[in-house]
Structure formats: C-alpha cells, structure tokens
Design a protein that fits this description.
Length: 792
C-alpha cells in the first residue's frame, strides 16, 4: 500500500490537469451538503442515550408535563418598578403574543398576566385575573400590588426581588417536539419582544434553552473571524519556509478542499453539527497542513540543478512513506471515537477520520498535481536557507546530558499539577463576558432567584396500610408527615449558598393556606389531615390552573416536583447541590419511604459534561494504543514504536499538568485539545523515526543528529505555522475558543520540543542496546531499490 501511494503521487504529477479535475469533481459533489448543515447544541444530544439522567428526565417531562423555561424579562429600571399601568399592559400583550407562537400554547406561558388573584371577580364565583382591567385606576394598581406582595411564590420567579422587573416563563418543547428546534424558537421569542421595547426599559430572553441555542452560533461566528486570521498566519509561514506564493496556494487549496468535502459530507449524511464537530475546521487545518509542509520543504531543498520533475519524485520517495503512515495513524486515532455511545462524539470521530483520509488522498493527488502545474514556481532554496531552522533543530539535541535532565524535571513538575485538574463547565460561562446573553443572564440572576432549573422528583412508596385514603383520593402525599418531610427537604436546599430559590408542594400549600385564611400569618400552616391537604391542592389548581397543579403533584398523590433555581449552574456548583439532595434524601425522605430523582436541563447537562470528558480521555488512550499498534506493525519494532509515540503522550501529560497549575478546568471544549495534539504530534515522531532509520541504514555514525537535520526543519515549520495560527484563538471573545487555542499551541510546541530533543537520543540508545538485526525494514531493499530506479 505504501508503494502504491508513492506511485499514485508520481502519476498525479505526470497528469496534473486530469488529477485536479477529478479531485475538484469530488469536492464539488460534496459542496451542496454545506447548505444542508444544521446546528444541534441541545444538552440531551450530548449525553449517552442510556444514561439514567435521560430516562429520569424523559419520564418526569411525560408524567408532569414539564418543559424547560425561557425567561423573558421586562426590566423597567424605574424607581416605581412594575406597578405601572403601561408596564402591565405591555406585559399582558407580550404574554398573549408568546402564547400564540407555534409550538408554545397558552398552558406553557406563565406570567402575572396568566395568574389569578386570591379573590372572586365582582358578581362571580370565579377567581379574578391578577391583571384584570381597569389597570389605570390608582385603586386597582394598589390592589394588584397588595395581591402580588402577598403571594410569595411569585417573588424571584415572576417578579424581581426589587420589584423593578417582571418575567414571563415560556415552556420550550422537548427536542424534536412540534418540529421546531430550540434555536428557531428562541429567535421567534426574541422577535416577538421587539415591538414591546420602550426607551428606558430592556427586554431580555435568557435561560438554559437560550444558552444552548446560541452557544453553537456564537462559536461559529467567532471561528468565522479567527480561523481566517489563523490561516493568514499559516500562509505567512508557508510563504517564508516552503517556497513563497505557490507554496501558499498549494497549502491553502488543500485546506479549502478538505473543509468543503468534510463539512459537505456531514450535510449529506443528515447529521447535525454538534458542539464537538464544530471544531472540525480547526482540526482539519492542523492535521491537513502537515503533509504539505514536509513535502514542500523537501521539494524546495533540492540539489542545485536538479530537474523539478525528478526533484518531486525524489521528494515523494523520501517523505511519501511517513506522510501515508502519519495520515493512517491520525485517522485511526479519530476513528477510535466510534466506540463512544455519545452520538456527537461518535459523529466527531467519523467525520474527523474521513477528513484525515481525504487529506491523505489530496496529498497524494492534488498537491503533486499543483506542484507539477508550475514546477519552477517554487524555486530551490539557497544552500544556507535551511540553516535558520536546521540550527535550532540540532541545538535541541546537541547537549543531551543537559537537556534530558531538564525535560525530566519539567515533566515531574508538571505532573504534580495533574491531580489539581478539575472538571468544570457551564453553558453561560462558555460565552464571552461582554456577550449580550451572558450579561443579561448575570443581571437576571441578580434580580431573580435564578435562570437555571434543577427539578427534583420526589416519589413515595410506603406500605399499603400507611397510605391515607379519603373518598376523593388516596396517596402518600395526603399524609401530614410526608408533607412535613417535603418541607424540611425544601428548607434544607433553600439554605444552600448555591441555591437562589426552592419551590415545591410544601411551600405552595403554605402560601395557599395563608391566602385562603384571610392573609393572616397564623393561617400559614399545614394540618395533618388528608382532606385538608387534598382541598388545598385542589385550590392551587383552582387559582393557578390545572396545568400548574399537575406540574406540582400527580393525580395519584404519589409524586411531586421540587423546583430548585440556581443562579450559576456550573458543574461544580451543581454537583454540590446534587450532593445536598442526596444527603437530604437520606435524612428526611427515607424515613417516610421517599426517594429523589433529578431531572431538568441542569441535571442533563450535569451528566453531559463528565460523560464527554470521560469519552474524550478514554478515546485518547485507545487512539494512542491504536497508533502504537500501527507503528509497531509497520516498523516491526515495539521499542522504536514506543519511542515514536512517547513525545506526544508526554506532551499531552504536560498540557494537563499546566492546566492544573494554571487553574484551567477540564470541560467539553478544553478536553478536545487532546485530539488535535495527538493528531499532529504523532506525525512528528513518525517523520523523525523514518529519517532516523534511513540514516542508520546508510551507516551514519550519529543517525539521531542526521534525522534532526533532515526532519527537524519541517517539523519546526509545521509547529510554527499551526501553533501561531491557532494561538490566535487565545484572543477570542469566547472562553472555550480561547482555551482551545492556548492548549493546542502548548500541546504542539511541547510535542515538537520533546521529539527533537529526546527522540534521537532515545533511538540511538536503543540502537546501541539492540543485539538483533539492525537493518531497518522500512521499505524492503528490493522494493526500495525498485522505487528509486523508477523515480529516476
């Protein structure tokens, strides 16, 4: 296969126009798929389908009719706050418009305009709407103020604590429900708010569904600006090191073709663009450019007077084999992600692997064809032109007794940072601090109880003889002792510093008792009487509607939902709240035969983050093992294979340690640097090993130094181009992109340093210790001679 690949490169150079027409036809066939691309950033899609959090969340939504809320916040900013006729009229009008949106419905929009006051309408036995006209009467406004102030479950949910803002809760359908995705619904909700914006007031749309909808769009917008800048830096390095303008054309043509083909393939397959696959443009740029740098470097540094056609054949003979090997190992590493049960990670592995194989095909066809079209456009380098990179490449390995101990000390020091590494992520923290959504979310968090909902489903299953029974109903939640346990559970969570508010059956029963008891504080109590509990649960439905009552407690009085509002639902803060839930479950619920299950968008996201991180790290180990196996089989040496893989493995460990020392958390985005570092870092080791074996077979007394002189400049140029190009991501407005760019640059620079400084010394040590046949099998002697003769 390796010989076939080299010959394919030669044939492509012999027929450049035909080759380019065929490759462009392949790219054009994939192009229409670009118009079929769609984003999918819903947290549910990033969790293994068999994860318990998915099953619990799905059942809770079905059983209670729950939806994740978008918060539409009307912030008046005025001293008088929301108690103004104009504010209430706009709030009521916006509520009606949101109820009319496709996929929403009247039962899934909650605001002061949908709530009822605890008083009968004049001349009726029906409860009066809270914002019933006339609103412009001072007496009526005072009455509304009195009603709102008396209903404490509105405070922090529908009205802000300072009473200057009011919220509308819009229930978002589950993924795929109603044929409308969250991003489309978010934009429709945002559009519906614009006619109601007035001078001095602001209307914000926030919440977990908004963050999920906008994160992918924000990342793509950021990459649309930064990736071209990165390509400009890469082009500058290509221009300086590999042959001026035509080398830039050759390199960027390959990158453009790879991007279009891979993204078009995603579109044709019907797969959405997940957060994981959104980094493929970054990944393909790093992985795809390496082959061209090595080939162009070798072609440019041809002997003076050598014919370009013969120089191109010789360049393929020298670097064609490692180009094929590196592409195969990189593709195998990415394809290892196909073992993941997480669909977005599986999709990332499939299309990253496909993109790598396309890059290999282009390197063997499109690149030699472009070089052959203008063979003299890349002029030979002056004899001293390569010294600028040869000298630093050799300097790294010139003093092994000094360099190797220093590398060992650095490794030991950075390894101490690995235990300090923590998993931390969150939807909102992935947005730029100055982004409108993040600023609005932080402001709403200050004004209200929180923008993120953790749903705790409490289920009770006592012995049959302990279940209260009345003529109208039966169920464990009719027992006063059970309601008391629920109340202690709510109070325990309310005391947590991470929690902004807790609303459940106990707190709503207390409020209902207070309102129906003439708004007397002594009436705010729950009686241990099944009939009393049943009556007041029914009263909740009479006042707030049947939909709100069914979101709180089921008809069998066996299960209830406690809503926990979090102001900043980061991974570690949510984990602390979940631990508190389990502790309270043991102390308060277990004695009354109760248990707690976690649901809602926060619970699903909490399962998503460690699942993706575990999958990334597990696939990294599998990819390293697969790459080692390929290298060992092709080079027929386990020890040399280990030495080849070791620099990349140590570079990844260095980066993890640096993250620990700098306090950079491990999250969905930051864990992706492993794939990039592994994909390109292994290439350095393979190119170096191939040159080492060739020098050793030629009888060089210092094959490690010779390998550094021959492969080192191209490795340095490759590292410089990619590390500088994607180091630009460090100035991104998106924290996720910023960290990814920094980690990619650190990982690749570390891999380059370790390869050039240590691999030659290690390989020479192995050569001295080896007692068996030292002849490098690489290309079999007869096959190599035949190829060399064919090249000439």
């Amino acid at each position: 296969m390796l010989q076939w690949g080299i010959r394919l490169g030669w044939r492509s150079a012999d027929r450049p126009r035909t080759t380019l027409v065929l490759m462009l036809a392949l790219v054009l066939a994939a192009t229409p798929g670009l118009f079929r691309l769609r984003l999918a950033t819903d947290g549910h899609s990033l969790v293994p389908p068999d994860d318990p959090a998915i099953a619990v969340d799905r059942e809770a939504r079905r059983h209670f009719g729950l939806r994740d809320p978008l918060l539409v916040v009307l912030d008046t900013g005025r001293p008088g706050g929301i108690y103004d006729a104009g504010v209430f009229e706009r709030l009521a009008g916006l509520t009606r418009d949101l109820q009319a949106l496709p996929g929403v419905g009247s039962d899934n929009v909650v605001s002061l305009a949908t709530e009822h006051a605890p008083r009968f309408a004049p001349g009726s036995f029906e409860f009066q709407p809270l914002l019933a006209p006339p609103l412009r009467s001072p007496q009526r406004l005072a009455e509304i103020r009195e009603d709102v102030e008396s209903i404490d479950i509105f405070h922090g949910t529908l009205v802000s604590y300072d009473r200057r803002a009011a919220a509308i809760l819009v229930g978002v359908p589950a993924l795929g429900e109603g044929g409308l995705d969250r991003a489309a619904l978010y934009h429709r909700v945002a559009a519906a708010t614009r006619p109601y914006a007035t001078a001095g007031e602001r209307i914000s749309v926030v919440g977990a569904p908004a963050a999920e909808a906008l994160l992918g769009e924000s990342i793509l917008r950021d990459l649309a600006l930064l990736v071209p800048l990165a390509l400009a830096v890469i082009a500058a390095v290509l221009w300086a090191s590999c042959g001026r303008t035509w080398a830039v054309v050759v390199g960027l043509a390959k990158l453009a073709a790879a991007e279009v083909f891979t993204l078009g393939l995603i579109g044709w397959s019907g797969q959405p663009v997940y957060l994981t696959t959104a980094i493929l443009p970054v990944l393909l740029t790093t992985v795809g450019l390496s082959d061209e740098i090595h080939l162009l470097w070798c072609y440019r540094h041809r002997p003076p007077g050598e014919e370009p056609a013969l120089a191109l054949r010789r360049a393929f003979l020298e670097v064609g084999r490692p180009i094929i090997l590196t592409s195969l190992t990189t593709a195998a590493g990415f394809l290892s992600f196909l073992t993941s049960s997480i669909r977005p990670v599986w999709s990332f592995g499939l299309f990253a692997g496909a993109g790598c194989l396309f890059c290999l095909l282009w390197a063997l066809t499109g690149t030699p064809a472009l070089i052959a079209l203008r063979p003299r456009a890349i002029v030979p380098a002056a004899p001293a032109a390569g010294d600028r990179l040869v000298r630093p490449a050799l300097a790294l390995s010139a003093r092994p007794r000094l360099v190797l101990p220093a590398l060992v000390l650095v490794t030991a020091g950075l390894a101490l940072g690995i235990p300090r590494l923590v998993v931390q992520d969150g939807w909102i923290t992935n947005f730029a601090p100055e982004s409108p959504l993040r600023r609005a979310s932080e402001r709403v968090d200050r004004l209200f109880a929180g923008t993120h909902e953790l749903l705790v489903v409490l289920s009770f299953d006592p012995p049959a003889d302990q279940v209260p029974v009345i003529p109208a109903a039966r169920g464990p939640l009719l027992a006063g002792s059970t309601i008391a346990a629920v109340g202690r559970f709510e109070r325990g969570l309310r005391a947590r510093p991470e929690v902004g508010g807790v609303f459940g059956l106990s707190s709503q029963l207390l409020t209902t008792a207070y309102l129906w008891g003439g708004r007397r504080e002594e009436a705010r109590q729950i009686f241990d009487n099944p009939s009393w509990i049943y009556l007041h649960v029914r009263r909740i439905g009479n006042v707030r509607g049947v939909a709100r009552r069914r979101e709180l407690v089921d008809d069998g009085f066996r299960c209830t939902v406690v809503t926990v509002l979090l102001k900043a639902a980061t991974f570690r803060q949510t984990a602390a709240v979940m631990a508190a839930v389990r502790d309270l479950e043991r102390r308060e619920l277990a004695p009354v035969h109760g248990r707690a299950d976690l649901a809602g968008d926060v619970a699903v996201s909490q399962a998503m983050i460690p699942a993706i991180v575990r999958t990334q790290l597990g696939s990294l180990l599998l990819a390293l093992a697969g790459n080692l196996l390929i290298v060992v089989l092709l080079f027929r040496s386990l020890r040399q294979g280990l030495v080849c893989i070791a620099p990349t493995a140590v570079a990844v460990a260095w980066t993890f340690g640096l993250m620990g020392w700098l306090g950079i958390p491990l999250g969905v985005a930051t864990s992706m640097f492993c794939a990039v570092t592994l994909g390109i870092g292994v290439d350095y080791g393979i190119h170096f090993l191939e040159r080492f074996r060739a020098a050793e077979a030629a009888g060089e007394p210092r094959p490690g130094r010779m390998a550094g002189a021959q492969a080192g400049p191209a490795i340095l140029a490759d590292t410089l181009a990619i590390a500088l190009g994607f180091g630009l991501l460090a100035v991104s407005r998106m924290p996720a992109d910023r960290r990814l760019g920094l980690l990619v640059a650190v990982g690749l620079a570390s891999s380059c340093l370790l390869t050039l400084a240590a691999q030659g010394v290690a390989l020479e040590a192995l050569a001295r210790w080896r007692r068996a046949d030292r002849k490098a099998p690489g290309l079999e002697p007869d096959a190599g001679a035949a190829l060399a003769e064919e090249a000439v």
